Amino acid sequence: MQLPVILGIESSCDDTAAAVIRGNEVLSSVSFAQTVHQTFGGVVPELASRAHITGILPVVEQALLQANISKSEVQGIAVTQGPGLAGSLCVGLNFAKSLSQAWAKPLIGVNHLKAHVLAHFLADSQPDGSIPKLPFLCLTVSGGHTMIVLVEDGYQFTILGKTQDDAAGEAYDKCGKLIGLPYPAGVEIDKLAKEGNPHAFPFGKPKMQGFEFSFSGLKTSVLYKIQAETKVNPNFIEENLNDLCASIQHSINTILIETFYKAWDTHPVSYVGIAGGVSANTDLRKRFMLEAEKRNIQGFIPKFGYTTDNAAMIAIAGKIQWDTHAESPIALSPKPKFPISE
Q1: How many CB atoms lie under 10 A from the CB of residue 312?
Q2: Which residues have C-beta within 8 Å of that of residue 309, sequence separation ≥ 6?
Q3: In the structure, how many helices (H) and strands (E) does the chain have?
Q4: I want to staple 246 with a disulfide (CB 3.0 to 4.6 A). Which of 196, 311, 312, 315 is the partner?
Q5: Hey, how many other C-beta atoms are within 10 angstroms of the C-beta on 304?
């Protein structure tokens, strides 16, 4: 049986990406990261849209070239439909529609959040080539979303819990800004935390019902601590930067780990994983896998290239939909708000 070749296109935020897969094997994965937003301390939607317009054609061409695949061999075009920035989504979606029409290939609209979870099903997602089986419990954690998702037979997605305010990645960036780190702050906090004491500064921990998350109180706790200490010692941040990073990281990750495994206690499946940009955090990866080992269950974390926004995850999500003949209409519209359960 011939395995389908799917072209994936991703443009939900500030990364322009394209990938080609055959079955669940990644033939190419190309991404163009926008640097223009660093000056502004966050993504500027208008600038992101313009950069996508400039970058999308060369990125797709490079993906096809690296995969050594011609347009005639492509059997479906998967593209992010949402959630994301409206302007950014429009660029990718309209480009994919044009290819679909010009090449006479099926168009497949993909939920970006589902794709993060489904990145685990790419052939090279794990060092040993293993993939999880269903049912699969996944912590999806990024700059815009934090949720616990149960994936059951037939790839049915159910949200068990989600953040009630900030996403975890947003909390990393906001806390990083408070201590003078550049945007995005998550990577820098991860690096500096390695030389710090994670128990130096205990920060506020939310009391949430069920499997819900909250990070706004933690951010406020960090703010109050910094304000109080810098009144006494103006050099407090500089002198304690590593410990502050380690303590912030430990606090955020503890909320994530404890809430996720509380959900697992109620839904004790054999396969668990984390997905999304924050899953690149080394402390979170280590602690997540240790907790899985304690419970004698198999933990999965995609390799770093599949944690941030990428097109390979869009392609595999599109392939799974293609298997069920879930072709999208050419009138497909972007969905800036697109629940994972839809």
Answers
A1: 31
A2: 10, 12, 13, 15, 17, 31, 112, 277
A3: 10, 10
A4: 196
A5: 11
Q: Round the average pLDDT of the chain to a whole number and report it.
A: 92
Per this entry, what is the length of the chain? Answer: 342
Strand order in the sheet with 76-82: 25-33, 15-22, 5-10, 76-82, 107-111
CA distance 36 to 49: 12
With tokens 């061409």, the residue in question is 61
> What gap in Å lies between CA 38 and CA 283, rounded to an integer?
25
| Per-residue pLDDT tens digits for 19-44 | 999 999 999 999 887 555 455 566 77
Positions of CATH 3.30.420.40 in the chain? 5-125+306-323, 136-301
User: What pLDDT digit, counting tens, does each position of 171-196 carry?
Assistant: 999 999 999 998 889 999 999 999 99
Quote the CATH superfamily of domain 136-301: ATPase, nucleotide binding domain (3.30.420.40)
What predicted TM-score, i.e. pTM, was given to this entire model? 0.92
Contacts 24+ apart (CB under 8 A), 124-127: 124/25, 124/26, 124/303, 125/300, 125/302, 125/303, 125/306, 126/300, 126/302, 126/303, 127/303
Structure letter (DSSP) for residue 240: T
* Structural fold of domain 5-125+306-323: Nucleotidyltransferase; domain 5 (3.30.420)
Angle, nearest 10°, between helix axes 282-294 and 186-193? Answer: 70
Residue whose pair of structure tokens reads 């099903």 in the numeric block: 121
